[in-house]
Design brief:
Blueprint: H1 9-12, E1 19-20, H2 26-32, H3 34-46, E2 59-64, H4 66-75, H5 86-95, E3 97-98, E4 110-111, E5 123-129, E6 135-140, E7 144-153, E8 156-161, H6 172-177, H7 183-191, E9 218-222, E10 225-230, E11 239-243, H8 246-251, H9 257-271, H10 289-296, E12 298-299, E13 326-331, E14 338-343, E15 352-354, E16 373-375, E17 386-387, E18 390-394, H11 403-409, E19 414-417, H12 423-427, E20 438-441, E21 450-452, E22 456-461, E23 474-479, E24 482-486, E25 494-503, E26 510-515, E27 518-519, E28 524-525, H13 545-557, E29 560-562, E30 581-591, E31 598-603, E32 611-614, E33 616-621, H14 622-625
Parallel strand pairs: 1-7, 2-8, 10-20, 11-18
Antiparallel strand pairs: 2-3, 4-5, 5-6, 6-7, 7-8, 9-10, 11-12, 13-14, 14-15, 15-16, 17-18, 19-33, 20-22, 21-24, 22-23, 23-32, 24-31, 25-30, 25-33, 26-27, 26-28, 26-31, 29-30
Helix pairs in contact: 2-3, 3-5, 9-10
Length: 634
């Protein structure tokens, strides 16, 4: 009930709890209330960040009360702050500061949009007080209750909390080990040794371009904007796990690890019949059924609850949700597999689902929906689930890459937002990053699944409501670019159409595309708009359904398609009705579900400032693009 009501939390709390201080900074606010915050002031001073709190900036400051520090010291068996080292004070201070100002009215359940100054995301959720007429309140990291919120100061916003916030310092496997509610899954994680694959945190070999590339950034021009690609100072390895609690297993008759081994064998012998019985005794083999079961629950992407799909209140109205779910696809740590994550508008209960398919109107099964597995929201759990190098989420049903999931749920148009096509795009904070002109630069050799030439500037653009790009963000290639990406896997052997979506603009380049090293077609001029005779785009307005069908067919014969009707930038017209929004059919190939395949794009103009917006990629099975009823326009 709390999870379902979370979106209404903001409105239901008393607006009288808001205060505005037009003259104070973070520092002077704390000084004026020194009786309540003297311990926090001491910590900030010892951390040598006190001066920043007096000056211009934009911070969210989670200020623990003196009582919160008393509880903290008792838990550490300390008697005073003097027993803390300066380094420990620095850790506490940086944990409680964000370099962006966020009001609770800006947030949805999950995490704050930006990490704190230790590059850790803090969880944001709500709960109800059973001793106070079930009054709702906000929590940070599930333990620190907001006593007073959204107090505006000149250089940010104050959020007063009743506990010192302490993110876990454990790696993801060790954090799961401490949670007895997931003991069966953890035992499988250890038995398969997949726990060893979740231990990394930072890449010690990572090197930045140097200079001011991590501060001011590298300037470039794209579209109508002058922007900067700012390179991350560190490269992080981060992971996510979707985990069934023991209660979910017991409901399915799985009471111990032996039962789970038997269950996994039944599912994956059917899904991969050629491997049945060959690897049953070798749990570390990637083709072993239990290994497949466990690794399908693991991703090399860090994702809090609100990171898997677009949840920004400004972006959600851009989606045409009555006909299609908001959805994204992510590769898992099971070789050649992926998950489909959806935020449906009309699901019961509301929430985020894995491997869900369709709405009642367009489901392949008459009048039904493939429900999928629901991810539990932070407000539905009480344990700390955010580790040093990742996060795990409870799910409400058993997650598998079964034969039915592969051939029914994932037998669909697979549309990857290109910002999900490398773990480094996500783990760097580039995907969905708020802001205006500071984008996230990527470095060749440190961008998983990608390789690109020294002449290529590759960056992730920040998310904007009005961008002519799917989900409001995009991957940018600039210069005499030459980039190769490992394509996401397909669910089953068959014929697939591979397409890229992009917005036309005069600053774009001309690309030659290659599939597994072979050129696919004549070069594509990204500067040519839809009405050009080489493309043949015409508006749907005033035409009969048959005329529209014939026009779409003529465009396909030229290797192009109109853009999807499921997204509208800034709440304006849908992509399909915009002549500068196109899909290019790159190639049609027979693809094995257990093969690696690569797409290369090479800029062939002699223009060092030309660019390509790699917006989204579609991999579409023949069952969809050549179906009798035709592929839908969404």
């Amino acid at each position: 009930m709390i999870a379902l009501g979370f979106i209404g939390c903001v409105d239901s709390l008393n607006p009288a709890t808001y205060y505005t201080f037009t003259d104070d900074t973070v520092a002077s606010y704390l000084e004026k209330n020194e009786d309540e915050f003297s311990s926090f002031i001491e910590v900030l001073k010892r951390a040598k960040v006190w001066g920043e709190m007096r000056t211009y900036g934009e911070y969210t400051c989670f200020a623990p009360t003196n009582e919160a520090f008393e509880i903290f010291l008792q838990e550490k068996n300390l008697t005073s702050l003097d027993e803390l080292t300066d380094l420990e004070c620095d850790t506490i201070a940086q944990t409680h500061l964000l370099n962006e100002a966020y009001f609770t009215t800006d947030l949805v359940e999950g995490s704050f949009p930006s990490p704190n100054r230790l590059d850790r995301y803090l969880t944001f959720s709500c709960d109800s007080d059973t001793l106070d007429n079930n009054k709702l309140f906000y929590l940070v990291n599930k333990t620190a209750r907001m006593l007073q919120r959204d107090d505006t100061v000149q250089n940010g916003v104050m959020q007063i909390v009743d506990r010192v916030i302490e993110p876990s310092t454990l790696s993801l496997p060790y954090l799961m080990k401490s949670d007895t509610a997931v003991s069966i899954f953890y035992e499988a994680l250890v038995l398969t040794r997949m726990c060893d694959s979740l231990e990394d945190y930072t890449d010690e070999s990572y090197r930045t371009p140097g200079g001011d590339s991590c501060t001011t950034g590298v300037p470039y021009h794209t579209g109508n904007e002058n922007e900067f690609a700012i390179f991350p100072e560190k490269r992080y390895f981060k992971y996510s796990a979707f985990v069934e609690p023991n209660s979910v297993y017991r409901a399915a008759g799985i009471n111990n690890i032996e039962d789970l081994i038997e269950y996994a064998k039944k599912v994956y012998d059917e899904s991969y019949p050629n491997d049945a019985g060959k690897y049953d005794d070798d749990f570390t083999n990637r083709r072993n059924p239990l290994n497949r079961f466990v690794s399908y629950h693991l991703l090399e992407f860090y994702g809090t609850y609100n990171m898997w799909n677009v949840t920004d209140e400004a972006i959600i109205p851009n989606f045409e949700r009555k006909e299609w779910d908001i959805e994204d696809f992510f590769e898992t740590m099971m070789p050649h597999s992926f998950v489909r994550i959806c935020t449906p508008e009309r699901a019961t209960p509301n929430g985020i689902y894995i491997n869900r398919k369709g709405t009642p109107k367009n489901s392949p099964k008459t009048g039904t929906v493939e429900r999928g597995v629901r991810i539990l929201a932070p407000s539905e759990t009480t344990v700390q689930q955010d580790a040093l190098n990742g996060i795990y989420h409870y799910i409400d049903n058993i997650l598998t890459y079964s034969y039915d999931v592969r051939h029914t749920v994932l037998n669909t148009r697979i549309r990857y937002d290109c910002t999900t096509m490398s773990p480094d795009f996500v783990n760097s904070g580039g995907r969905g990053k708020p802001g205006e002109t500071n984008c996230t630069g990527m470095i060749n050799g440190f961008t998983k699944w990608w390789s690109f030439s020294p002449e290529t500037l590759l960056s992730i653009r920040n998310r904007h409501q009005w961008f002519y790009s799917y989900q409001g963000d995009e991957v940018i290639l600039q210069g005499i670019y030459d980039a190769t990406v490992k394509l996401p896997p397909v669910p089953f052997d068959g014929t697939y159409e591979i397409r890229i979506g992009y917005p036309v603009m005069a600053s774009r380049g001309v690309i030659q595309a290659y599939y597994n090293g072979d050129p696919t077609d004549i070069p594509t001029d990204l500067r040519v708009s839809g009405p050009d005779p080489r493309i043949g785009w015409e508006s749907d307005a005033g035409k009969t359904p048959e005329q529209i069908r014939q026009l779409d067919k003529a465009m396909r014969n030229r290797g192009y398609m109109k853009a999807p009707a499921s997204y509208r930038p800034g709440g304006g017209d849908v992509f399909r009705n915009i002549e500068s929004m196109l899909r290019r059919i790159i190639t049609t190939q027979y693809i094995s579900a257990e093969s690696d395949n690569y797409l290369r794009v090479r800029q062939i103009l002699d223009n060092s400032s030309a660019e390509m917006v790699f917006d989204y990629l579609e991999i579409v099975p023949k069952d969809v693009f050549a179906s009798e009823q035709g592929e839908d326009i969404y």
